[in-house]
Amino acid sequence: MDNRGTEGHRAGHSAGMGEHKGHVSPMTDLNIAVIVERDENGESLIRELQRQRAGVRHIWPLPAQLPLQYDAIFCVLSSDLPQRIPWVPGEPSSALVLVDDGKGPLNLDLIHNCAGHGMLHYPATSRMVQSVLMLAREGFQYERRLRGRIEKLDESLRTMRLVERAKALLVRLKNISEEEAYSFLRRQAMEKRVTIGAVAATVIDSYDLLS
Amino acid sequence: MQGNAARIPVNDRQTSEPWRVGILFSRTGFMSVIEETQLRGTLIAIDEINDDGGINGRPVETVIYDPGSDVRSYGQYAKRLMVEDGVSTIFGCYTSSSRKAVLPVVERLDGLLWYPTLYEGFEFSPNVIYSGATPNQNSVQLCKMLMERFGSRFYFVGSEYIYPRESNRVMRELVRSSGGTVVGERYLRLEADRSEFTPIIRDIKRVQPDVIFSTVVGESTTFLYQAYHDLGLNPKSVPIASLTTTEAEIRAMGFDVGEGHYTAASYFQNVETEKNGNFVDRYHQRYGDDEPTNMCLEASYFQVKLFARTLEETNSLETKLLRNSVMGAEFDAPQGCVSINPLWGHADVWTRIGKANRQGQFDIVFQSPAAVKADPYLVGYGRCMENF
User: Fold this and answer.
1) What is the DSSP annotation of B266-323?
2) Do A115 and B108 touch (CB under 8 A)?
3) B387 belongs to a structural domain
4) CB distance B30 to B218 below 8 Å
5) Which of A75, A133, B79, B292 could disulfide-link B247, Cβ–Cβ 3.0 to 4.6 Å?
């Protein structure tokens, strides 16, 4: 954060290019950090993002650590970029678009190691900027949803075991059928407005307490 | 012809370039007692491989980092290994929290972590080979034996992190479903010092359980057993049972302090196999006769040997090839014949229960007839463990 560059350029300043046709750009209101040299290519990238009504902040020179609080980051590819990325691969905080200025030789290992979500090559056209940003955001969010789904599945597995145990307890203690035990748990969950897992945990805990 | 020759990729069998692998064990901090032995197990195996001429004529070269028992450092060093050192195969981690810190890195960059530690189960990753035991390979038998020999009132003591909480969840399930009760449950921070254990032992004396089930790990293991000893409790009537107290911890706490307590593990130094005899001899030659082996060291050792045999077949460190090739593989380890369960990528390991003796070794009081199939999600144990 110590190397914050020039003033931020907020959306809206250069709006009204007449291309939206009543359709709101998916980039509107995205906060985007652009970490590139402000040469002709850099200027045109920033302008394009502003034209899409994104909130753009230009940062230069390359900071020791990339900032964390943006929806997307465009960052020039440099050989030490992986070390400047503050998150570990697999747990990104933002969608990351690598910007290749085309000056050095292509380094696929470096690109792999950055674990980014997209790649932009200079000179970048408007179509390229828009599509890479959209795909990068989608990929980033999709990964995040999948990770969430895995967490949820893990949790469900545990909950199922809890519910089964609570059921077995109820069957034994209250001398009821399995179906009745399940419906007891469901009813309690509905009345108390908590999850069935929480009810099951309470049943088991209170049994532990009483015995 | 000659013009094209330069473009043909160099045949791997003709190069003598080393195979580079990464190693992540803490030599410093509160986890160093056990992780130091895991590092040794890893390095002994690598030395043996290199002394035998390497793998397909190429030696194994290590890149080693010491994460200093700091969970975040495991993730950062895993990244450094893969990104800066160009390594994709990593041997390492003891605690579940450190494994979970490495997980996203190896999953995103497609590396392969070989994890040589028992853990609480309920995990699967296409980028990890698990070579330690999961609950169906240690807790189930341990609980059964304790109930038969000592009684049904269990007191849980653990370190405050994922593994103890999750292990106790499984253990509680086992205890409850066989008619036992959990009469106390306490957690202490990982860095807990000696004085923090005294109130817990006092509470245990007051509650009078039949068994203390400990999931305390690291340096503070010593403090728990010593506090128990100092306050005059007797392991003959209320032993401490553990899944993590190995020969290494017994040595650190003192043989007289450890005597009479129980541990369930896939391996003890006392295991009588030919392979183990040689393994223990070599270990003693290298580190001295009074340095014991232990289950985590053994898993660290055999997983590297298994890796080497796999690499010999694939002749490539590519994660997908290595993983596919190791699935279902059998290996004659010091603990006996083990295999990598192709369904889960977890090792099928032996179940044993040992009782610590005055020499700091474990007398084996139970042993499974063969390696027990890994079942990390306890799929085959019924949702309420009715059939255990």
Assistant:
1) S--TT---HHHHHHHHHHHHHH-TT----HHHHHHHHHHHHHHHHHHHH-S--HHHHH
2) yes
3) no
4) yes
5) B292
The pTM of this model reads 0.86
**How many domains is chain B partitioned into structurally?**
2
Q: For A211, which of B172, B181, B378 is closest by C-beta distance?
A: B181
Q: Is B173 on the interface with A (CB under 8 A)?
A: yes
A113 chain-B contacts, CB cut-off 8 A = 82-83, 109
Contact between A185 and A200 (Cβ < 8 Å): yes
Cross-strand bridge partners of residue B355: B262, B363
Q: For B153, phi and psi rounded to 5 degrees?
A: -100, 110
B362 and B228 share a domain? yes
Distance separating alpha carbons of residues A204 and B17, to the nearest angstrom: 59
Beta-ladder partners of A98: A75, A119
Residues A89, B82: C-beta atoms closer than 8 Å: yes
Same-domain status, B150 and B83: no
List C-alpha distances in Å: B219 to A154, B248, B265, B356.
31, 11, 19, 18
CATH number of residue B195's parent domain: 3.40.50.2300
Note whether A88 contacts B384, CB cutoff 8 Å.
no
Which residue has 């003192």 as its token pair? B254
Instruction: Print pLDDT tens along chain B (388 aa).
Output: 333 333 344 444 568 899 999 999 999 998 998 999 999 999 999 999 999 999 999 999 999 999 999 999 999 999 999 999 999 999 999 999 999 999 999 999 999 999 999 998 989 999 999 999 999 999 999 999 999 999 999 999 999 988 899 889 889 988 988 889 999 999 999 889 999 999 999 999 999 999 999 999 988 999 999 999 999 999 999 999 999 999 999 999 999 999 999 999 999 999 999 999 999 999 999 999 989 999 999 999 999 999 999 999 999 999 999 999 999 999 999 999 999 999 999 999 999 999 999 999 999 999 999 999 999 988 877 544 443 3
ipTM over 0.90: no
Kindly give, in sequence order, each residue whose CB lies less than 8 Å from that of residue A41, ignoring residues fewer than 6 positions away. Answer: A101, A122, A123, A124
Interatomic CA distance for residues B112 and B106, integer angstroms: 6
Which of B84, B106, B108 to mutate to test binding with chain A, by most A CBs within 10 Å of its CB?
B108
Domains of chain A: 31-124 (3.40.50.2300), 150-210 (1.10.10.10)
Residues of A in contact with B105 (CB under 8 A): 88-90
B311 close contact with A: CB closer than 8 A: no
Question: What's the rounded Cα separation, in Å, for the pair A68 and B290?
Answer: 51
Residues B48 and B156 in one domain: no
